[in-house]
Model the fold of this input.
Amino acid sequence: MKNKIVLTGGCGFIGSHTCVELQNAGYDVVIFDNLSNSEAAVVEGIEKITGTRPIFYQIDCTDKAAVYQAFQKEGPIAGVIHFAASKAVGESVVKPLLYYRNNLTSLMNMLEAANDFHLKGFVFSSSCTVYGEPDEGRNPVDETAPIKPAMSPYGNTKQIAEEIIRDIENAGVDFKTIILRYFNPIGAHPTAEIGELPRGVPQNLLPYICQTAMGIRKELSVFGDDYNTPDGSCIRDYIDVCDLAKAHVCALNRMVEGKSQDKVEYFNLGTGSGVSVLELINTFKEATGIAVPYKIVGRRAGDIEKIWGCVDKANNVLGWKAQVPLKETLANAWRWQENLRKKGVM
Ligand code: WQD
Done:
């Protein structure tokens, strides 16, 4: 009997790639997604890659009755990976209540369901955003780095979510939790059947680069080159989305096999190396032959200067390490963009 896993937000960028890796690892996958920021066609893409169509419920995780009906219908569930959340930093500043209501209500519903349906494990999709701007010399940040006041309501929902998880675990629930703090997920599946599909004008760097390379955008604005970094542009830890997805399999295996040491465990998921905006633009050219036109503009409000992760704990305890070279990740992202054009999507 295969272990069955619920992925909330499973039609999203990281969720869909995680579905593929879970199926490859022998899990049955059930997706809950309200399609507010994703497309049902992603389910077809997953099936094309793995040959197995995940069970799909178009439900909103803030709707507790719908969540419980789906759990009752599916029978024994071994674990949940909770991706479903609104995640646009800028939008969260303009619509804070939408973010607090959606991100926290959905989390609480899934935590209650995990307890009521006796799951073994709960994986929460968190973010390096919780660290804020690391103190000078504190990069690479490890999991003991101080949690700084959030720079946006989006970041605050991640911090509050982590606190809620700690509190319910201390209150005593039957399931363990692993909190995964992502650095900057980028790329697409090498088959180009699934990838990142931002709605409207992309907020994140690589989708904007790819759309500029495709001619959808005129030129890339680089938000500042006057930072205290070698080339003046901001530094991030860009992690391949397929590598990131595999880390979720390792986290679930750890809990399902009863290897978790603590009620709540935390893991940074990154490459352990920092890359600047200008370096990423140059590496994209090396990977694709395309020199993306860009201009230097003013800094973007809320941006931090530099952050990259210490990933020793994920390497040594989770048994996971990022493998995909940055050039290959960028080539995969470009191939996905070409496929979107071929399919007439954009
Ligand atoms: C990266 C760098 C920008 C766009 C956010 C969230 C994080 C996660 C990923 C959800 C920055 C620069 C960007 C552009 C640019 N979100 N940039 N021109 O802000 O590090 O992280 O998205 O899970 O939680 O905080 O990612 O890709 O927006 O920016 O110069 O058009 O690229 O200034 O230095 P960020 P990003």
Remarks:
- The first strand starts at residue 4 and ends at 8.
